[in-house]
Sequence to fold (606 residues):
Amino acid sequence: MDDRNMDTSSSPSFDVSHDHPKSIIHIDIDCFYAQVEMLKNPELRSQPLGIQQKNIVVTSNYEARKFGVTKCMLVTDALKVCPNLKLVNGEDLHDYRAASNKIFLLLQSWKCPVEKLGMDENFIDVTNLVQEKLKTNMDNITIPGHLYSEPSIDCPCGCHIRLKIASQIANEMRKRIYDDLGLTTCAGISHNKLLAKLICPLHKPNDQTTIYPEHGSSFMSTLPSVRTIPSIGTKTTEALISHKIISVRDLQEVPLDVIKEYFSSDMAVRLKNLSMGEDNTPVRQSGRPQSIGLEDSFKTVSVKSEVEEKFTALLQRLLILVGEDGRIPVSLRVTLRKKDVKRLSSHRESRQCQISSSLFTINSGSVSVTEGGQQKLMSIIMRLFNKLIDLTKPFHLTLVGLAFTKFQERMTGRGSIVNYLMNDLSVQSVLNITNDCDTSASSMDYSAASPSSSTTTDLSDAEVEPSPKKPKKVTWIAKRRCLSREDVASPSKLKVGELRLNSRELEKVSELRLNSRDKSLTPRASPARDMSETSDNLRDIAEGGVCDDCPSYVDKDVFNALPEEMKNELKAMWKNSSNSEMPRASTRNMNKSKPNTLLKYFVPQK
Ligand code: DGT
Ligand code: MG
Fold:
């Protein structure tokens, strides 16, 4: 234990009447970039290693730290203290991001809220998991790693046993990260995020520390600067320092009323609470980013061809990120920073538009752009650029940016027929399904699955990629294979993973796509014409074996796999129709009069 950082006296302000119900773990990867590089090249393990970005060593392995190499040291200074320092360029963040995502995914497997903080830190709220474990026999459990300080009292709320269990869970998590990913980590365990984070680096590397609420305030008083508190930023620090509040102990000692003279009442209370180690901010489950973008800044670019080059390079890098993300983008934003040479000022402008999901395919969870898709994206980008810049006049840009701002999400509503039929968004249709009454965003997003479809959004520039205003279409393969009797009887168990085409069927679909492409070379067909063409195509596909009650365009296997009530609804509707090939006029009428009938999902269309 590091005695310099320890103050074993319990806080005089510790109030035993307070409950400490939460159990929070903070995990930080040791010398993150350096570990990733050492995994890639194990020879680096035995040498002092620095990760270089521009002229700075952003981090180093613990071997190099022994020589005095510190984070963000100038390369020249680092080489002075450690002449044998091996430097690896760390400007390409790709592998660090990939490792970061793997850690996050791994931590999700405990089914607790996980909040990602930067690339190598995560908070995990294990409160519920601890409660579950408490129900089992939890006698004589010990704390792995370090306990900041032995308790002087047994907190009546029962937090000690809970934090002991949490520290065991933290140990399991760290072990899994090491076993599965080869990375060593540190962890902090406490009843709140603030203390979990701040106690985490107390025993570095590859160790963990637990702190009880009783010692929160005394631990905080050991922190030399108020700036060490995560939610106190530069401006607040400067304001505090200007009032001679420098260390956390200063902040603890200054009366609340005095702080209220400098800050708002809420802020003053928050500052005082933080200084005492009190924090009730929740662990917020992190999701995937709402947009994925890249920017490139430079001195000045005033020629269109140069702008195009910049965008081409950005797009290539962005497509790699999107590939890893695994979602299909459906909206693209272009950003420019324009320099006003007369006013010596600059400002940003953006334009975005929706893009067709058919520009992308998904394979094994990874998204890639289709052949020709990149060119199509470039032409969309340059069209947006032309809208932002008046090319008849000189322009000066200092930044270009590209971002995919919306992504296709799968509809997961309970009642969604999609759940029974959908699997791979990239595959094409045997059974075309139209949903022109659904206005929910999620199902709209789904629509981008088909090459003929696109989402309608409130984007500023939707005309760049023309799309039908309505209906929003959903097209996918509805082919079901190899289901057991139980699976058929219980639609909820239907395995979407088995809804795929075999290669022969794919050939058939490709043929059909080619046919329909040929047809699309003729002047744009009316909706009615489109529909009948699709019906013909569907009839082509149905290779006999059509069930008695179904029209020929319906796949018997798929139909049989539907829940009984859906089957009955469909059968009743087909019975009411004089011609089971779904006449156009009646289809349209049905769409109008009964917007929510299942039949809508089976309306064939292009
Ligand atoms: P640790 O946690 O003390 O064992 O060492 P690291 O390297 O994990 O440091 P940490 O957790 O503060 O930051 C994670 C990674 O983020 C680190 O490996 C490199 C990068 N990084 C940290 N600070 C900076 C910085 O000031 N600038 C840049 N560009 N990258 C940084
Ligand atoms: Mg770290």
In short: Confidence is low (pLDDT under 50) at residues 1-10, 411-547, 578-597, 600-606. The two ends are 70 Å apart (CA to CA). The domain at 293-408 is CATH 3.30.1490.100 (Dna Ligase; domain 1).
